[in-house]
Amino acid sequence: MKKTWYQIARHNPGDIPPSFELEVYKKMLGIFHPGAYYYYIVNIAAVKMEFVSGSVTDVLSVLPEDFTVEYIFENIHPEDKGRFAAHEKKVTEFFNSLPPEKVLKYKVSYDYRLRCADGSYKWILMQTVTLQSDEYGSVIRVLGVQTDINHLKTDDTPSGLSFLGLEGEESFYNIPIESPVLLAAKELFSRREKEVLRLVLSGKSTAAIAELLSVSVHTINSHRKNILAKSRCTSLAELGSKSVREGWI
User: What is the pLDDT of residue 100?
Assistant: First the structure.
């Protein structure tokens, strides 16, 4: 799981201080709870909990300081561990496919059974939203809300993995684990960025592109920087190969 989360954080050391605007209660207003719940903030880059609400004791009978990333994985029902790991891998693929500006606009939802302090298991609905990311779309901190839905389950059939769009973004429900990344490549770049991308890959210089499009060299340099950031590429060769593979041109 740590290897998977390092991928979504893109090996960011996690040393970005938590002194960012955090409106926890405002975020919570948009989440409906069908049962008792607790919430937490997890630093994905450092793979550790930075805050756990006291209500975790009401749901699982464990103390907040004992509710760690390791606790979650160690206490997931044996039949659900493989599915949990597969879902987190799919979550990483999904968020790594998003343009940086959309990382904060999706909520993740699925469920699994988690062991309580007395050894019994409860079905838990997990919902997470990204609270902090960097300019490249790396996920740094996540707000998680876990709700006791044991009373709603009539059998041991899990719900699927869903990505719920916020602020008007498209939602994706019950995603099969084996499905490809969901977002179409055309959504990654703006119309102008795709135009610049095609010209760059055709071998045109920055100055030539600026003259063709009747804009400044500074503007083209900004487009090129954005294209590299959105594509997660570090070189022109990598950009060309990935553009062909992903159908960007």
Answer: 87
Find tokens 């041991």 and name the residue.
Answer: 156
- Dihedral angle over CA of 208, 209, 215, 217, nearest 10: -70
CA distance 218 to 224: 10
In three-state secondary structure terms, 5 is helix
Give the global pTM: 0.66
Q: Which domains does the chain have, with CATH numbers?
A: 2-182 (3.30.450.20), 186-246 (1.10.10.10)
Distances (CA, A) of 194 to 186, 199, 206, 221, 248: 9, 9, 15, 14, 7
DSSP letter at 76? B
Q: How far apart are CA 136 and CA 118, in angstroms?
A: 43
Tell me the mean pLDDT per 10 residues along the chain, length 249: 71 57 53 81 91 94 96 95 92 88 93 96 95 88 93 88 91 81 60 91 93 94 89 85 76
CB 172 within 8 A of CB 182: yes
pLDDT at 30: 47
Kindly state the tokens that stand for 171: 């939602």
> Furthest-apart CA pair in the chain: how many Å?
71
